[in-house]
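[job 4417] fold queue: 2 targets
>>> target A
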Amino acid sequence: MPASLNHHSTWYKSIMKSISDSAETLYTYENAIHGFSARLTYEETRLLKSQTGILKVVPEKIYKPLTTRTPHFLGLDKIADKFPESNATSDIIIGLLDNGVWPESKSFNDNGLGPIPKSWKGKCE
């Protein structure tokens, strides 16, 4: 960040303005890292990568669920209103607690869940 600027967010705004008038900043990160997320076209991404001070530009990864039962098991079907369908930013923090995989875990108990959906293209290993 140039010394003339008083905050990282000011720097990010000036960078975005220099590459496009329509580039959209989605979120500014300040706690664990300094950075920002943005919605960019391919050309805007190319221009951003060429800016001084930009260490890395990483495309968004789209993940697909690897299970058909987890949302139900976690009770997410009961709180759907907490997860509105939107492209907007939010204050939701998602944490992952991984304590290993155990075949005896209730996560693997499918009693009473009915047949596997026909749309599922996975396999049991």
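>>> target B
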Amino acid sequence: MIGRIAGRIEYKADDHVLIDVRGVGYVVYCSDRVLSQIGRPGEAAALYTDLLVREDILQLFGFPTLVEKEWHRLLMSVQGVGAKASLAILGALGPDGVSRAIALGDWNSVKAARGIGPKTAQRVVNELKDKAHGVMAMGGAASVAATPSEDDAVIEAVLSAATAPAPVMTASAQAEALSALSNLGYAPGEAAGAVAQAAALASDADTPALIRAALKLLAPKG
């Protein structure tokens, strides 16, 4: 399995790039967004790759980050979503956009990808809403600033647990908040939705503020 390629760009085409690795050229298929971000011919490039094996062909698909590669693999697990459809979704939304769309059940955003119809978009959201929390925790780029509630004992207890030394390091405030909510017993899809919704409200906040905001969204109404 070829999991990562690093070398010099030989040329770029509409849907792929050729990377020379010590004299061996690898054709790597990428989304439009990745192709627009990668360097020019002659420049160095490194991509995480996923190898698709078929009876008649082997194809490499490239991604700038490991989390985007994992989103590709997860999207491909959905019935009716092949490699090209997965690249179209990632190209249109990016990994953070895919995470937010699935967490919020926003299949219209998924449908905006080229070649993705409403039924496929709904299937992506429905099938991945309870499967994607691990990949969401890997990415977790957004955070939220929320007004703290000083007299909420439950929130303060969660914050104490979140700030204590943890055995596994998290990638961001969003990932840490998701982990804290999961430890409280919230379902992965429910927790991811609250964190994503809270993260969309503001930016530049720490983990405690994001947890407070997510808990407020999850609190029973009425």
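[job 4417] complete. Note on B: The beta strands are 4-12, 16-21, 24-29, 44-53, 58-63.
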